[in-house]
Amino acid sequence: MSEKNTNKYAIVDLEATSASSMASIIQVGIVIMQNGQVIDEFASDVNPHQKLDDHIIHLTGITDQQLAQAPDFSEIARKIFDLIEDCIFVAHNVKFDANLLSEALFMEGYELRTPRVDTVELAQVFYPTLEHYKLSHLSKVLNLDLAQAHTAIEDARATGQLLFHLMDKIASLPRQTIDLLLTFSDNLLFESELVIRDAIRGQKHELAKEYIMLEESGIVLRKPLTYKNERKLSQDFETNIALLGLETRPKQEKFAEAVRKELDNTDISMIQAQTGIGKTYGYLLTILAQANVDKVVVAVPTKLLQNQIMSQEAKSLAEIFNINFHSLKGPQNYIKLDAFYQTLLRQDSNRLVNRYKMQLLVWLTDTETGDLDEIRQKQRYMAYFDEIKHDGKLKADSLFKDYDFWQQSYQKAKEAKVVVTNHAYLLTRMEDDHDFVRGKTLVIDEGQKMVLALEQFSRYQVNLTSLLQQIHRILDHGNPSLLQQRLLENLQFEISHLIQEHQQFPQKQYNRQQLDCLLQTITELEGESGLVKMLSPLQTPLYSHFWLETDYYQEHRVSYLKASRQELLKLSAYLPSAQKVLIVSATIDIGPEVDVADLLGLNQVHKVSLPMDNLLNQAIWIDQSMPMIGVVSEEDYDKAVAKRLQKLTKTEYPILVLFTSRKSMLAVSDLLDLQEVHHLTQEKNGTAFNVKKRFDRGETNMLLGMGSFWEGVDFAQQDRVIEVIARLPFDNPKDPFYQKLESWFSKQGKHTFNSYSLPMTILRFKQAIGRSQRRPDQRSAILLLDNRPLVKSYGKLFLKEVSQEISLERTKFKTFNEDIQTFLQKES
């Protein structure tokens, strides 16, 4: 760092008897910095004249005996004040340290009036893509020296290094971006602007060659990277795996050989392979090694898995072989620069929104994609991100028409060797662009999930909660005509009535006639284009079934009106132009009478089933002592789940808990909070992608998840893991999709539960437990809390199918808690 930075900084860290404002200081660490150099340090224990609780002793390593020998704060107050009174006070979470130290000094007759800088807040602005901003995490990401965490002087030194990094990062940014940032710096909670101005002192306005400045807006973007020349892959799979620094696996090689053979087959190929064998590398390396393969499209079930492939397999293949990958998502995943620019022009009173503007200005100098998923903490204020996300439209006179991220993504999808997308967007793209897969090799990973993706694609939904809010705003502030007012009030009444009826009768469904009044009001609305656009698709004759669903969140709920078509969609309608279609699945046969190809509407299919091996490093226990689902209330069942999870934490093994219901997951999470059990919960603590990364890093030993965690997401970081399944993932018989299937099966004289629902439940269960068996040396203990297989008529088939690959025992929880210790401690 140059000597242009003239401010003097006192980087302070305190350890205290608690996190309360009434706490007593037990340790002080101070580092004085100027011109990028440490010029002084001070460290001392402080005698609080009270006993420490066990939590503080465990956290800091400080003992009562140690503090009994320490000076009173009064003995060191003058030295501390003289050291920092002419400095800028810096701390990681400065409010706590500055307030506590200022009050302690004030009690000794010293009034501290130094400006304050918070490195948490600065890190949030200048490192916008991090999941969280604890000093320990930042130290790991930025390679700061934090040898003894929660020692005051070590934390102060690490915070000083963080300040160095922040000032270097700020100085490296284009001056034009910094100038824009400074227009919002009043929204920082403390005087952190002083650090920004200090870091750029003497900085030139000349724009570095890697940036583009959009003159009229002042926004600076990073120039898009050009694709590198690809390297040829070896025809030998084992050689390619070795070049990636990976070890070969016999089952993976067999799978790769099956893929190679199927590439010569003109029919659609379906390959069934066991989970945990490394299928992604298996098909990617094999396909990319073929000289006649031009372009590849890979579709996976979820955006979470899409992100996972891009951050793992795609990244490795790009680094070693220069393979050009592109992750393609729907337009709403990308920032719309026009919308973002409009928010820069207005004054928002919300500090958090303004800080997001600062984060995004920094992020735009670094992102190559414009994918808003890169902003890890956007869930804290989703309303703002809903405002700036892309809608797929771009005006001809847009300031950003040549730099629009969605347009760039569309173009990159044409140029890249491999496009990775998700099932839902693949269907959308193929419907909008019939040539999207023309002449390409299409891989549909987890093919059985495409059945549900087709159903979701055939549906339409309206967020009724958001719609009511919009109507309310128009009635209060929109000055509608008398006729419009009456129509909006009528619409408001109809929607409120639907929501109230749904709360009383959650399973109720509607036909078009029953929603006639609502649909008629939509046709008469004029001038409210946003509302009409949202509701008008419901009028199409395509949709025949209507129902409501509600999502439950921490402090609110959201109701949706959903519409579905009468018939099942067929995947075959979208595939004729592909050069080769390869469907990879954990199963081909859903049951004895039906397979995945039937449900996808595929006819000419060549099927390959690879042998399944017994999984010796996994074992399943069914808890006989759990209350029976359907006999006890949901509340009591959730309490029983939480009670067992609390006891399992004592094993100190990582615990993955899978739920089928968001409501149940959040209820159990709240119960764990009351028991002070440290854990992460999907949506409550971040997106699925974020909480998984935090769990993998060992931030906590327990993760509660649902949805995408049931299949396709690997938990390979944990050597030993306990996986708890709260209840079996049965289909809801009242779901319109299930009712469609009932109609489809009944025409063939088949029973839906036996032919589809039970086999699919077994499949989902197998895939769920496969999440924790990703390496030969990994061991996982599975606890199924749902004991219905032990008493229901279908139980024999469930137990037979599951125990074919994995040992299964019936037990009581107390016994399980003892057995897993023995099982997980075995050598693999």
UniProtKB/TrEMBL annotation:
One of the Pfam families matching this protein, by short name: DEAD
SMART domains: DEXDc, EXOIII, HELICc2
Keywords: ATP-binding, Exonuclease, Helicase, Hydrolase, Nuclease, Nucleotide-binding
Any GO MF annotation of the entry: exonuclease activity
InterPro entries linked: ATP-dep_Helicase_C, DEAD/DEAH_box_helicase_dom, DinG, DnaQ, Helic_SF1/SF2_ATP-bd_DinG/Rad3, Helicase_ATP-bd, P-loop_NTPase, Ribonucl_H
The keyword Nuclease belongs to this UniProt entry's keyword annotation: yes
UniProt binding sites for ATP: 273-280
Superkingdom of source: Bacteria
Domain Helicase ATP-binding: 238-509, 260-498
EC number: 3.1.-.-
Known function: 3'-5' exonuclease.
Entry's family note: Belongs to the helicase family. DinG subfamily. Type 2 sub-subfamily.
Name of the molecule in the record: 3'-5' exonuclease DinG
Source organism phylogeny: Bacteria, Bacillati, Bacillota, Bacilli, Lactobacillales
Recorded name of the encoding gene: dinG
